[in-house]
Design brief:
Order of helices and strands: HEEHH
Strand content: under 5%
Low-confidence stretches: 20-40
Number of domains: 1
């Protein structure tokens, strides 16, 4: 496995190992350091799909979904580009 693939794999493992926090305006804020499993029932682990550039895929829909996942995981800007690039495949590269 080359270094770029190792880096992408390591980045994906890191970014997707933390739970996604979903909150609505009526949900009290979550405090991850004090949450018990029963208190944090609205945490889910969502992995973004790879975008391959096929005709049945919509790049705008993919970008919106990806941005929501990154926003909810509080991913910093420097990591967003790396994550998005790691999810490109097929003719999208």
């Amino acid at each position: 496995m080359n270094n770029e693939k190792k880096y992408k794999l390591k980045l994906n493992r890191h970014l997707f190992s933390t739970p996604l926090h979903l909150q609505s305006s009526t949900t009290p804020p979550l405090h991850s350091s004090t949450d018990t499993p029963s208190q944090s029932g609205n945490k889910i682990n969502v992995k973004p799909k790879e975008y391959n550039g096929r005709s049945e895929e919509n790049v705008i829909t993919w970008l919106i979904a990806l941005e929501e996942i990154m926003k909810n995981r509080c991913i910093i800007d420097d990591e967003k580009i790396s994550l998005a690039v790691s999810l490109l495949g097929g003719t999208a590269l």
